[in-house]
Amino acid sequence: MSDLDALVRAVLDRPDDDTPRLVYADALDDLGDAGRAAFVRLQVEAARGEAWESAAIRARCFRGNPGEEWWNSLPELPHGLQWAMPPFRRGFPAAVQATDGAAFVAAAGTLFDIAPVESLELLSTPAGGVAALAACPGLARLRRLVIRAGLGQATALVLLNSPHLAALDELVIGAALTSAQTARAVTASRAFRRLRTFSYRDESQGGALVSALAALPDPPPLRSLDLQGNRLTPAGLRRLFDSPIAAGLESLDISDNHLGADGFHELIVRDPLPALRRLDAMRTGPGTAGVAGLAGQPLLRRVRVLNFGGNALRPVVGTVLRAMPLSEIRVLDLRDNRLGDEGATQLAGARWLTGLLQLDLSENDIGAAGAEALAAGHELGGLIELDLGGNPIPSTSRKALRDRFGDRVLL
């Protein structure tokens, strides 16, 4: 066994310990593989912090991201399993996708000798295999479980009450098979009590999960709640905000729910989320009024990540945002709107941009004037990434952006 193989073995034996991973990175440096060594160190550092901090953003935007050589070096997985995308966690391949629970059960005996797997995505959960999956000791190694097609009440009752899911802190449930009854089974389960990150889709029923969450007298220590595509209404948001679970939420995703300005009114007048640091509101239809209504609210002085992508926001929103007190914002996502040159130019003059680390203005009909305003923006020097993809920016303006931001700008 080579020294490098011995270090990989140490990572497999102690998957929760960062020390073997960092020693492995040092060994990669000694072997001349500085790019992969930097990637391992950066992912380890990012996992210790928050998603809006510099390390996490640099990890997401890592310019030396694994190329063909890295992908080709990934270990071969047992039948029925493949690497999820992206597969890396803390520098090592750790996220797998299984056709169903039976494939994972069959592979569990050898899987954890191949890689320090901690994330499992199930493409399907046939009822006939759920009991065997719930009884599989390999579940004890999972921190994250994704049930892509969703699940019904009976499956949830068996799988999510498995005693082997004690280490699980993130659960993602898709929409296809999910029902109103599923929500109650999930929120009453053993696994749910320990979750810190929860994502749930119920596109057909809508509102069932909010009712189940609001009814919990002693909710789990959730920090992140993703309610994309649940047909939420302003009244549903009100119920959620009035419940005990809202107090600890640091991240809330309400994307793909047509809430309109009325939905944002609940955030504006109530300030119901004292711990909130991230708000994702893509395709929620706030309009200029909904965005402008946030001005002066305590919420904006706490939030580090703000996502208003896909809302057809007009150029005037650039002026609105420029005037807002957003000095604590580190990530601003305005992709797929209609800011145009006027909106981009206004935004480029905002003084609070000095603290911004990541800005997404892709697909905003920004041309030469807006691009050159951004290239000249005095407050944008701290950006780790500026995404301007999908905009009709001419070559001369692209050069100005490259001269200013180098490979930090995406065009």
The CATH architecture of the largest domain can be given as Alpha-Beta Horseshoe
| Number of discrete helical segments | 17
The CATH class assignment of the largest domain is Alpha Beta
Q: Domains counted in the coordinates: how many?
A: 3
Oligomeric form of this entry?
A: single chain
First-residue to last-residue Cα separation: 46 Å
Q: In order across it, which strands form the biggest sheet?
A: 1-4-5-6-7-8-9-10-11-12-13-14-15-16
Helix content: 25-40%
Report on the biggest sheet: 14 strands, mixed
Strand content range: 5-15%
| The CATH superfamily title of the largest domain | Ribonuclease Inhibitor
Number of strands: 16
Taken from the alpha-carbon principal axes, the silhouette is globular
Poorly predicted regions = none
Radius of gyration: 23 Å
In round numbers, the mean pLDDT is 91
- By secondary-structure content and strand pairing, the structural class works out as alpha/beta
CATH topology of the largest domain: Leucine-rich repeat, LRR (right-handed beta-alpha superhelix)
Question: What's this entry about, in short?
Answer:
With 411 residues, the chain is an alpha/beta fold. The chain is built from 17 helices and 16 strands.
Description:
The structure is a single chain. The chain is globular. The protein has helices spanning 3-13, 19-30, 34-48, 54-60, 68-72, 101-111, 130-134, 153-159, 180-187, 208-214, 234-241, 260-270, 287-292, 316-322, 340-348, 368-376, 395-405; strands spanning 81-83, 88-89, 92-93, 95-98, 119-122, 144-147, 170-173, 197-200, 224-226, 251-253, 278-280, 305-307, 331-333, 358-360, 385-387, 409-410. The strands form two sheets. Strands 1-4-5-6-7-8-9-10-11-12-13-14-15-16 form a 14-stranded mixed β-sheet. Strands 2-3 form a two-stranded antiparallel sheet. 43% of the residues are buried. The chain is of the alpha/beta class. Helix 7 links the parallel strand 5 (119-122) and strand 6. It folds into three domains: 3-60, no CATH class; 74-249, Alpha-Beta Horseshoe (Leucine-rich repeat, LRR (right-handed beta-alpha superhelix)), CATH 3.80.10.10; 278-411, Ribonuclease Inhibitor (Leucine-rich repeat, LRR (right-handed beta-alpha superhelix)).
